[in-house]
Amino acid sequence: MCQLLGMNCNTPTDIVFSFEGFRRRAGLTDCHSDGFGIAFFEGKGVRIFRDNQAAHSSPIADCVKQYHIKSFNVIAHIRKATQGEVNIENTHPFIRELWGQNWVFAHNGNLQSIPLPRNALFYPIGDTDSESAFCYMASELKMRFTQKPTKSELFEAIKEITHEIVKGGTFNFILSNGEWMIAHCSTNLHYLTRKAPFGKAQRIDDDGVIDFNDHAKAGDKVTIITTFPLTKDEVWTKMERGGFVFFQQGEKIDEVLGKKGESIDDGTLGYQKCA
Amino acid sequence: MCQLLGMNCNTPTDIVFSFEGFRRRAGLTDCHSDGFGIAFFEGKGVRIFRDNQAAHSSPIADCVKQYHIKSFNVIAHIRKATQGEVNIENTHPFIRELWGQNWVFAHNGNLQSIPLPRNALFYPIGDTDSESAFCYMASELKMRFTQKPTKSELFEAIKEITHEIVKGGTFNFILSNGEWMIAHCSTNLHYLTRKAPFGKAQRIDDDGVIDFNDHAKAGDKVTIITTFPLTKDEVWTKMERGGFVFFQQGEKIDEVLGKKGESIDDGTLGYQKCA
What we know:
The structure is a homodimer. Chain A is α+β, with helices and mostly antiparallel strands.
């Protein structure tokens, strides 16, 4: 399995405080050491960094830390390989162009099967279940809509396509086109929104502390989405199984509650570290 | 205008000696300072680094230098903006997935017009002539071949599509799918192949010296393609205008000689530094 990290904001924000805790789970506080990736939207463009080394010690991750890139939308992933070798082509997040926008996707879970697209417009480059599922989703979206549809049409279609994919297994994912971010929970996904009044937070993985008052302005809104909470003194919302949350400008704009029993319990409910 | 750098090898090779000279042209020895990008194929995957800062001083370029990534195929680009703002989405090289492979493209030149694809299967994300031309080429290829064709079919199609695009202006480009690399020359493009017996080389831009005997094995073959030569004591082949050269495993495998008068002389023949 793997872990996911997403950030959606209404102001360009530096993700380093969260990423520094998250990357420790790739070899220090947990075992998700089979490569990592992080994608930063910048305007319509994306900076994407990948390595097949463990994020906690990767020089590419050190570079990301030092550069303090500010972004409205970030998706990161630390990998514990289940399907596919440890190499760059199997490293999340995956990216495709759809209607002239970058679409960025990362997955946590394991899919035993993936539906065949009616017309494969996108093909996986590596050999993970995750990239195949993303290509299925992108192909289906492009077949349904020759031009970019409205946000509500997109959300509705993504829900329908997800319901097809989730029949094959566990499918926690974060997806963004740089305008909004969608999180879907099969087993484990948590989020919180930081806004005024700001306080302090202490990281779980190394006790690093931040006072957001030193960094944020009054109107700032920053949502963090992650497999398991990254801080010990903030209130994280655990997503329901089968649920979707849609974020834009740092806030939840829509939600679909989960239905019990819809998803497959693969034994990863609750934080179980690698043995 | 911009400058291009490509490398195609039969053994994973570190491009830092060439890149360190090349990146000086982005702000020190020349003015191509409007961002840079470099893509390294690694297996079927690609590591791609971009910055909207000048390559000579970019911390992302420093990171690339320090990491000494070895690759069979590398494409890099330093930008002097002609069309489109200085931002990440307008930064070469551009990348698209075609038949389950990464296709990486960088362009030097200026196109006044680009043909409309019969069916736009790929759309530009930014607003450069370069990305539009690449999307036209990728759309045309995907329309002609529902599955990946043979190498010779591909080369023939790329030549035909290039002949359409070049009607619109100057179109020097380097393109790779990780298996081979194609260079097309409208005005300026040079290459050389390093193989045994290896010698020394001195960079033009900062007099840095390397002895390839210290780095290469007997059977190694490394081709470097670049807008203007990077070393002063090696014999570079200047490509003919309108010509194509196809490289694989570090060597020229096919060539189409240019025809005089086929390309547009936009005044950049011969190395003219920015004023």
